[in-house]
Amino acid sequence: MTPIRRLIASVATAALLAAGMAGTARADDIPSPATIGTEQYLGGSFTMDRHLDGFDKPLTSNGDFVLSPARGLVWRTLAPFPGTTILDDHGITRIDDQGNRDELARGDQFRQFVELISAVLAGNWQPLEQRFDIAKDTTEQGAWQVILTPKDGSTIQNQISKITATGTDFVENVRLEKPTGDHDAITLSDQSLQSLPLPPEFAALLTGTGQ
Amino acid sequence: MALRATLWALCLIAMAVFTAWQLRGGHTGIDADILSLIGQENAAPNAQQSDIATVRHLLANDGQQAIFMLSHSDRDALETAATDFTGRIAALDGTQGITLPGHNNDRFADLMALYGPHANSLLSPADREKLANGKAETLYRRALQNLYSPATTLSSQSLKQDPFALLPAFLSDLGTKLGTGNDIITHGGQFYLPVMASLSPDLRSSGNDQRWVSAANAALQSITDATPGLSTAKTGQIFFAVAEATRAQSDVQRIAIIATIGILVMIGLVFYSALPLLGALLVVGSGLLAGLAAVVAIFPAIHAIALVFGATMIGISVDYALHYLVLPSNAGSPVDRLRKIRPGLSLGLLTSVIGFGALSLSPTQLLSQIAVYSVAGLVAAYCSVLFLLPLIPARDVRPSSPIRKLHDGLQVALGKTFAPIRVRLIASGAIIITLALAAFLIPGNNDIRQFGHGNDSLISDAGKIADILGLGGSPVFIRIDGTDPQTRLETGEAIRDALAPLIMDNRLGGMIGLSDLIPSIARQTENRDLVTNGLYDRFGAALSDQLPVRITAPDKDADYLVPDDNTARTLPEITRLHSGGSDIIRLRNATDIDAIRNALTDIQNVTLINPSTAISNQFAAYRLWAWIALGGALCVAAILAVLRYGLQTGICVFAAPAGAILFAVLGGYAFDIAQSFFTTMALFLVFAIGADYVLFLAESRNETHDDDTRLAVLLSLISSVLAFGLLATSSVPLVRDIGSVIAIGLIGAWFLAFWMTAPTKHEQTQNQRGQE
Fold first, then answer.
1. pLDDT of residue B765
2. Is B518 near chain A, with CB under 8 Å?
3. Which of A50, A100, A181 sits opposite B138 (nearest CB)?
4. Alpha-carbon distance values, B71 to B80, B82, B196, B224, B231 (Å)
5. At B20, phi and psi to the nearest 5?
């Protein structure tokens, strides 16, 4: 019955992995992606349009994020409603604007998520090849494009049907398609690599001291 | 004579064909499962399910699961090994399904289809508490955040059914209640990955369990060899059962071989011929065959324990054969020789039939099967003595036989112990009184755990797995009775409320019941009201503003989620939470049983059940029945003996088998042998064989074949003690106890049979005058 927790984790993993990994998809004619060292973190802004099947307008949100291979990821929504999602070794936690924490998933299995992201950012595709068929291409604008399709029999097939990511130095757009007909379109911007330590407010969240 | 022998031989052949057809054709099953031994009473219709029936149902369910725990310091290596191992186990004949962490997400769609339409009726305890305490705004904010979170299960469908995202919280809480087992666990720097295999229900009863366990062990060995650093553990009833059966089988085979060789040597040393041996085998074989045919004809399935006990009749039926075979060839024609022993043989049979017949009056199928097997087998052995043995050429006991010389020496020694009739009567009275006192005063020990040998490696593995999965503590569970399913669900909810404080302070690791998966209609109605008043009325409009859909309050008249066939298909866990007409609450890591019992005091129709206690109580009830039947058989034997031999001699004759039983009971007590149901059953054999000894001697007393009968009884004693005494060397406590009690009892039976039937001084004088 833990499927709900695992499902949440799977969806989050798939979506955010796509965001992270696409930035490193390399083909011979694609500039090398910026590599995030273990002493660095990637920060930036996002806009997410959530398209629900049968509904005319998407649910749009925006905010900022921080990704540290060593520490995890903080996804902070600023509008329309403030809220933070944290993915780290402890699991997945959501914090609302009142500071109320909601632990969606907990356990060691989420350590793998951070490890996978780190591997991808280091240019190591092997962990993803176990779960996805990976197709690489370039767009007309000269950006690279990576299409991830869950392999047959992969359990993630139940939640994700396709992930498309494009970018140049970093991932810039991610489209996450679901078997229900819904899809999320994520745009990442203002990204930059910084050296650790993380800004205090993010560091506190990732170490759990912010609770 | 030849005609009767032919007809009887045809009967035996018909029985053999019928039995083979029944067994090989699958018309009658042989059940080797220890669980089948218990809880098969003929309960009154509509009666509340007994504790033992519930235990049996749950254990049978649990018995269809095997758990493997793989561990490694490297997660990837662990997962690779687990994937390989899972494939091997899944391919085994007898594996029904495999559960691996992270490999059951495909259930999610089914779960959402079941629960989705009822989302507004299902609340996690935390959400319910917030709504009840006026903290609905927290849930509203969570719903808003869920709309925009990257980690969400939100979909167009879920938004329509559950705009406030209540269902994920309910399911997440349910996952916690169900406990671990579906996750990779980190403990002490190691990763632990549980692999759960569900087994075919008929795997154990079909006799394929040994093959499955061997193949599973080979698979474990294979991945261990292929993955340096991998360690494994396994647990499940199937492993314990196979280990126990293998050990018992090995012991019994060894003992049977030694005993058979011993009996062969004994008969060879007495007759210097194989013909008497053939006669003994014919009698014993026909008894075993007829007993098997009878149970196969009457019962749809027979239990291995009934077969084992029935087969121990060999100790009785060999008496019949030896009783005839020792008669010298010059004692007359076969018919004349039969005539000499027929009264004793008939009385011996009658006594044994009464003894075993009394067992059939018990309400337990197991005892009925033993009774039918024994009675039919003894009647057939008796018929074989009458119809077949006369056709076998007689062979005389050789005067030079060492056993004959042993017999003569023992007769001299025994002669010195003989006492006057008055002393024997006093001794008889003492035996009867002491036996009655012993039956009441010597405490029984029916703890199921003492019957098996135990396997240190498996016990260690089970402990490790329980620790890792948090399944330690007492294996108690709670049964909720009641005819109305909804009332039972409400009771389940009351129990959760009562035990929640114990979970909070870790006196109880966790619990799961049917009402956790399917709340009662009363609870669902309350939830709808809370959700409607707390969320939809207050925040519905605000949430609608954020969504491209209009949110409407839940329909209070909508259908409720109820435990029906559809629910059971989606939630197979339900079968583990329901038994007969009762609901079951399973507890995890229950360390404070008294606190649990106290918490349940005020809740009606609730029973806290400890499986091992329930099973032990059941065996205690069996033991009581066995004693009652034994007492009844002794009473009937006493009446028959008095009618046959008069008051004084009759009491002495009766006192011999009664004394043998007392000897066995006191001997067992002195040697610290547990007084269990099984040792009580062994007393039936002591009684039956002891009765044979004394009746044979009583009937031949003052007859010309008296000495032959004494020799026959000695030979019977040697063969029986050889067989049962060797059982006492078994490493399986159950087998060892039975063998020890019978061996001790038979020695007592032999001595008392001689002592109680020894000629009085008056008779000796008359005999001497007659000889003069």
1. 57
2. no
3. A100
4. 12, 9, 14, 10, 5
5. -60, -40
**C-beta of residue B230 within 8 angstroms of C-beta of residue B701:** no
What is residue A207's predicted lDDT score, i.e. its pLDDT? 63
Say which residue, B107 or B433, is predicted with more confidence: B433
For CA atoms B656, B662, B666, B671, give the dihedral sign.
positive
**B positions 118-177 inside 8 Å of A (CB):** 138, 141-142, 144-145, 147-157, 159, 168, 171-172, 174-175, 177
User: Phi/psi at B83 (nearest 5 deg)?
Assistant: -65, -45
Q: Give the β-pairing of B301-303 and B29-31.
A: parallel
Task: Judge: B102–A7 Cβ closer than 8 Å, yes or no.
Answer: no
CB B119 within 8 Å of CB B200 = no
Q: B151 vs A96: CB contact, 8 Å cut-off?
A: no
B27, amino acid identity: H
Token pair, residue B37, equals: 């031994």
Q: Which amino acid is at B239?
A: F
What type of residue is B163?
A: P
Q: Residue B263: which of B243, B246, B280 has the closest Cα?
A: B280
* CB within 8 Å: A94 and B145: yes
Highest mean pLDDT among B323-327, B530-534, B765-769: B530-534
Separation between Cα atoms, residue A92 and residue A2, nearest integer Å: 14
Pairing of strands A101-106, A132-138: unpaired
The helix/strand count (H/E) of chain A reads as: 4, 11
Q: What is the pLDDT of residues B282-291, one digit of tens each?
A: 888 898 889 8
User: What residues does A193 pair with on adjacent strands?
Assistant: A42
Q: What CA–CA distance (Å, rounded) separates B632 from B421? A: 26
CA nearest to A65 within chain B: B150
Rounded to whole angstroms, the Cα distance separating B590 from B506 reads: 9
Q: Which residue of B has its CA nearest to A17?
A: B150
Residue B614 gets the label, from left (phi > 0), alpha (psi -120 to 50) or beta, of: alpha
Asked whether residue B498 carries a pLDDT value surpassing 90, the answer given is yes
Query: Cβ(B448)–Cβ(B37) under 8 Å?
Result: no
Coil/strand/helix, residue A51: strand
Inter-residue contact B232 to B444 (CB < 8 Å): no
CB B158 within 8 A of CB B167: yes
- Give the closest-approach CA distance of A187 to chain B in angstroms: 13
Radius of gyration, CA atoms only, chain A: 16
How large is the average pLDDT for residues B32-59? 63
* Cβ distance of B75 and A97 shorter than 8 Å: no
Q: Is A69 helix (H, G, I), strand (E, B) or coil?
A: coil
Q: Name the most confidently modeled range: A4-13, B318-327, B635-644, B707-716.
A: B635-644
Q: What confidence score (pLDDT) does residue B473 get? A: 60
Q: Which amino acid is at B583?
A: D
Percent of chain B at pLDDT above 90? Answer: 19
Backbone angles phi, psi at B679, to 5 degrees: -70, -30
Cβ–Cβ contact B103 with A under 8 A: yes
d(CA B153, CA B105): 13
User: Cβ contact (<8 Å) for A4 and B175?
Assistant: yes
Contact B111 A3 (CB under 8 A): yes
Contact indicator for B149, A83 with CB cutoff of 8 Å: yes
pLDDT at residue B558 tops 90: no
Which DSSP string corresponds to B117-146? GGGGG---HHHHHHHHTT-HHHHHHHHHHH
Least confident among B31-35, B115-119, B748-752: B31-35
Tell me, what amino acid is at A96?
A: D
Contact call for residues B176 and B74 (beta carbons, < 8 A): no
Burial of B92 per CB tally in 10 Å (0-12, 13-18, 19+)? buried
